[in-house]
Amino acid sequence: MNEHVNRVLDAVAERLGRAQSVLFITGAGISADSGLPTYRGVGGLYNDTATDEGLAIEELLSAQVFAVRPDLTWKYLAQIESACRGAEPNAAHRAIAELESHLQRTTVLTQNVDGLHRQAGSRNVIEIHGNLQQLHCPLCAYEERADSLAGRDLPPLCPVCASVLRPKVVLFGEALPEGAIARLVAAADEGFDMVFSIGTSSVFPYITQPVLWAVDSGVATVEINPQRTQLSGVVDHYLPLGAAAAMSGLMKRLAR
Which residues cross the membrane (predicted)? Predict the structure, then answer.
């Protein structure tokens, strides 16, 4: 690492060492070191620009298509689930989970549907796009946990009413879950000492707004991303690193 990056890591670690409450906002980039590249699509997990059907992936993964052709939506949901299956939390996920045991209050707001924050041990996780591991029936109260779709018939059917099951993810064209938004608002009302943006392109308002709120409120802000975003010139500290490298560097400094 160059001297400038080391100085930024030192400054961020010093502030983090004094913090009591931290908000971590994470996107697909935090899972890159777990073998999940920064994709497009639901939860940022789809890479191909073209599909077999000649439609945009955003259309196939939409509520409108799911309503009339759930088999097509499930085809690509299954591809995403297969990419997530077997992935393990990396150093960045583990660092955030470890900090939760040391700080008075830690909140993770993630765009990811891979479940790796929970797998790493983080408890206070707001999955703003839902996750692929929980299936539910839109017509009845049936729910199940599905850690793998391998070998299952697709689309999966509800064993109670035979309707098509769906994962608890936000499809294109759907509103964000009210419960997740309410949890974020409640956490923001309590306030934070620091706000991190890690591995997200920061294009959605519900991702950028907490950071901009922190900037306006004088709360320390940090962006960790190899690529600059619209927030890079606004935050107090910008680290042009991958999530695992940056968080490992911070944890080493905190351990001194």
Answer: none
| pLDDT tens for each residue of 165-207 | 999 999 999 999 999 999 999 999 999 999 999 999 888 888 8
Contact 103, 24 (CB under 8 A): no
* 117 assigned to active site: no
Q: Is 158 annotated as ligand-binding?
A: yes
CATH of domain 42-85+136-169: 3.30.1600.10
Query: Was 84 annotated as part of a binding site?
Result: no
Domain boundaries, the chain: 3-36+90-129+177-254, 42-85+136-169
140 belongs to an annotated ligand binding site: yes
Active-site option among 93, 102, 117, 129: 129
The answer regarding whether domain 3-36+90-129+177-254 maps to CATH 3.40.50.1220 reads yes
Q: How far apart are CA 52 and CA 253, in angstroms?
A: 48
Q: Is the pTM of this model over 0.85?
A: yes
